[in-house]
Write a structure and sequence with these properties.
mainly alpha; Arc Repressor Mutant, subunit A; 0% strand; DNA-binding transcriptional regulator YbjK
Length: 189
């Protein structure tokens, strides 16, 4: 085993694949290292624990692709662009599946971490308030709150909808519900 070829992305993708196949609690760091043929030192170079690995997988900055940017910009107005940007996070949650998302929320609660915390520096964390401010300036929103307060509320909505989706066992479409909640919050013209 070596650290040659060990990349953060490779460790994440291998770990996530194994978590999905076998369950988070049944996969050890040793097994991840054996699967990707790296030392534990290589694993610990990038991650403190399995909790750290799963948290990194769900990190907002890792979600934004060129396709996502094109999708955001395809919306006809700033308010819809802001909602599409927030939906990137929700899409990632849905694509990850119920079991992995359940474990993610367990990790967050165990480590007392706020998901989609707007206080952290993220690409989406800077795009959404900017788009909301442009929507306010263009008269596209009826809600008189500041762009920062609206963004904070949108983060709370996204987290609440995703957690509700997990608790309900995937019984509804979280994108549809979050879109409805975002529109209610923003009071889109």
């Amino acid at each position: 085993m070596s650290t040659r070829g060990a990349t953060k992305e490779g460790i994440i993708s291998t770990g996530i694949k194994m978590f999905i196949e076998h369950g988070f609690d049944k996969v050890t760091i040793n097994q991840i290292c054996q699967e990707i043929n790296v030392t534990k030192t290589a694993f610990y170079y990038y991650f403190k624990s399995k909790d750290d690995l799963i948290s990194e997988f769900f990190t907002v900055d890792n979600l934004l692709s060129n396709e996502d940017l094109i999708h955001i910009l395809s919306a006809s107005d700033y308010a819809n662009q802001a909602m599409k940007a927030m939906e990137i996070y929700i899409n990632h949650i849905v694509r990850s599946g119920l079991e992995l998302t359940k474990e993610y929320y367990r990790v967050l609660m165990r480590n007392e971490i706020i998901p989609l915390d707007k206080g952290k520096s993220t690409v989406l964390g800077s795009i959404v308030p900017t788009l909301l401010q442009k929507a306010i300036d263009a008269g596209q929103l009826k809600n008189p709150s500041s762009a920062e307060d609206l963004h904070d509320s949108m983060c709370c909505i996204a987290n609440g909808v995703c957690l509700h989706w997990v608790i309900e066992g995937g019984a509804f479409n979280p994108l549809e519900l979050s879109r409805k909640r975002f529109e209610n919050l923003l009071i889109v013209n």
